[in-house]
Design brief:
Structural class: mainly beta
Largest sheet: 7 strands, antiparallel
Order of helices and strands: HEEEEEEEEEEE
Strand content: 25-35%
Distance between the termini: 48 Å
Radius of gyration: 21 Å
CATH superfamily of the largest domain: Galactose-binding domain-like
Shape: globular
CATH architecture of the largest domain: Sandwich
CATH class of the largest domain: Mainly Beta
């Protein structure tokens, strides 16, 4: 083994060790994000659950989601707009007011077919998790759920799709590979993987009970 090759090996080993220690240091700072969950309140029996690619119930509480210390809900009280600016029920501002109850009077009902909402976080943040509660008074499955982040309000710059269960591209955003799921009081948690963005957009296209779209709450966790 010549001297030059030995030096290369030594440098490679030191870099590997540094990266491993740095990764461990970062992992050591991870803590569970504090998600304030509402009371579970299923009423009635599930209907029309013969749905393609439907997740099976977990049967136990969701495991804690770890994120860097200091992560918080950035969406709370921020500006939010919708393709339906005159909801059938509720006000758009209810979607990020922090209240996740399932009772009547706590959810927003948007019009039928494809609709989306957009949250302006006011500046770019590193995002770690997005949690959405569409409607959890009854077991429901919402269709064409697509969650995206971008650098601009029109979603033309650096658009990234974090979740997409539109299996047949009926919403025109590309065919997704994620599974359908039943709404529960835990909400649906999407791993944002530290993507940096200012705007968050959530799409849907009706549900297995009707063609309408609903939101109780959307939380965006980052720092």
């Amino acid at each position: 083994m010549n001297k030059k090759f030995s030096v290369i090996l030594l440098v490679s080993f030191i870099c590997t060790l540094f990266l491993a220690q740095n990764s461990y240091s970062q992992d050591a700072k991870l803590v569970p994000i504090n998600i304030d969950l509402p009371k579970s309140m299923f009423v009635g029996t599930p209907t029309n659950m013969n749905i393609e690619k439907l997740e099976k119930p977990l049967g136990k509480p969701r495991a804690p989601f770890l994120a860097p210390e200091g992560t918080k809900n950035l969406a709370l009280g921020k500006q939010i707009i919708s393709t339906d600016d005159m909801p059938i029920i509720g006000e758009i501002e209810m979607i990020n007011d922090g209240d996740k109850d399932a009772d009547d009077g706590y959810f927003v009902e948007l019009g039928p077919f494809s609709q989306h909402i957009t949250i302006d976080l006011e500046k770019a943040y590193e995002l770690y998790a997005i949690v959405v509660w569409h409607f959890h008074k009854q077991p429901r499955v919402y269709f064409d759920v697509v969650i995206q982040v971008a650098d601009d309000a029109d979603f033309t710059k650096n658009v990234r799709t974090l979740f997409n269960n539109d299996l047949d591209n009926s919403s025109g955003l590309g065919a997704g590979t994620d599974w359908h799921y039943v709404e529960t009081a835990e909400g649906k948690l999407i791993d944002a993987k530290g993507e940096k963005a200012r705007y968050v957009r959530l799409h849907s296209k009706g549900n297995n009970s009707n063609d309408l779209n609903h939101y109780i709450e959307v939380a965006v966790y980052g720092k």
